[in-house]
Amino acid sequence: MSSSTPKPTTLAAIKNAPLLGLAEGNAQFSNYQLAAVVLGVPWLVKSMLPLVNRGGFKTYIFMLLLTGVPATIAYWALMSNYGARKNSKVQLPGKDIETYITIKDPELKKLYAGKNKIPMQVFHDAYFDGKIDFNGDVLDILEQRHDWTTFNFTPELFRYVFMNFIPEVIVHSQSQDEEQVRDHYDRGDDFYEWQVVLAFCSILLTRLRFLGPRMVYTSGIVLSPDTFESLETLQDNKLAVVCNKLDLKPTDRLLDVGCGWGTLVAYAAKNFGCDATGVTLGKNQAKFGTKRIADNGVPADRARILCCDYREIPHGVGIYDKIVSLEMAEHVGVRRYSAFLAQMYELLADDGLFVFQVAGLRQGWQFEDLVWGLFMNKYVFPGADASASLAWVVNKLEQANFEIKSIDVLGVHYSATLWRWYLNWLSNKDKVVEKYGEKWFRTWAFFLAWSTIASRQGTASVFQITMHKNLNAYHRMLGAYNHAGIHVKLDKEPELIL
């Protein structure tokens, strides 16, 4: 297959993109150009204005402070509006936007019609408010988004960045975390637990829920790309993989930081006999998890859920033999990331293992990635500002004196998981609307659909990292027994090279 010709797939495990869904977006941006603009504009202004042009270096610095932010905004706006697509290997059909969406709001209809595309931020805000509708399935229309929407930075996006996002990144207080997490995760458990029967291939009936009976709000793992594995199977695969990487034993003390509804805590204690402790800020989650442990016949003195902030975990050197944290560190925030990792280092035994799964973004971003990230921060995961590139995460881990044993990039597995959540969500529309309203239904349908695409195409990803302390005395060879990446299955015995 030629590398210059994108080809759609037909794999049963994922929502396969149509050809138009493989189109690349605008990625034209240069830090050097931005620096030139930010540094050059105040020099030009100083040179051209009367009186000011007589000033020296201090005057230049004053003008730099005065024009720096406006110049940055202008450059971002220009590049996001008029920058070129990364490539044009997939040709856009150029249809009128009315082919894809129906604008009901008169003012918006005046602005966006025909070939005049609508900015994604303007679109999704109007869609949530019922001012615009999709002409078909949300996910199917979003697959064709490059033909009817743009990903330029709008005034509203700039306002959100400067008035909300940046201040929250800087502050990221414990009270802020508690408010945001409990508002999100202490929404009624039925919000996440809707039941549905889904027909697949007209012959397979699978009983699913939004998160499924496992109640796991992190990426599952696909083991068979050619098979539609159920949501439960994907999550069971992930639980088994994580516990195998942890090399759990009955004598181990396990800590699950950000344990959610306690599924991994109960699973590990029940199947491996270890002593397991889960930590969550969600009160409903702690209550649910405690009951789940009891329902699985695990004694309370062998497994427990603590409802507290991660900063309140009892301190001690080497208290836990194994630590796991699945997609919780994003909520820690950039500011406190290093302190969090230092705390985990202290809690982990010198011969212990740490499985760290974190959602992140690609380093070679497109403007769609940034618009998607800001949407997620505003509407779905407020405060989760530590979603970064793999390079940034690994750098932070190594700075904390951890040594990486293995890394698995699970972005497309998250796409498979999100797709199943999306199908469940749509199937329970009437129940969701009745209890939470039309706007909540629309917001989460849009989130699940766009995120299915984002994690499939590389915008977002999930990094599952296995590590241990970087100590001379650590017995690294013992880790070879369960180092899955070096244990390969060969279709046939290879011939020796003479």
Automatic annotation (TrEMBL):
It comes from the Eukaryota. Keywords: Lipid biosynthesis, Lipid metabolism, Membrane, Methyltransferase, S-adenosyl-L-methionine, Sphingolipid metabolism, Transferase, Transmembrane, Transmembrane helix. Pfam families: CMAS (PF02353). The chain crosses the membrane at residues 57-78. It is an enzyme of class 2 (transferase). One of its GO terms (biological process) is methylation. Its EC number is 2.1.1.317. One of its GO terms (cellular component) is membrane. It is a multi-pass membrane protein. It is found in: Membrane. The keyword Membrane applies. Gene3D superfamilies: Vaccinia Virus protein VP39 (3.40.50.150). Pathway: Sphingolipid metabolism; Lipid metabolism; sphingolipid metabolism. GO terms for molecular function: methyltransferase activity. InterPro entries: SAM-dependent_MTases_sf (IPR029063), Sphingo_C9-MT (IPR052290). Belongs to the CFA/CMAS family. This is sphingolipid C(9)-methyltransferase. It comes from Mycena chlorophos (Agaric fungus).
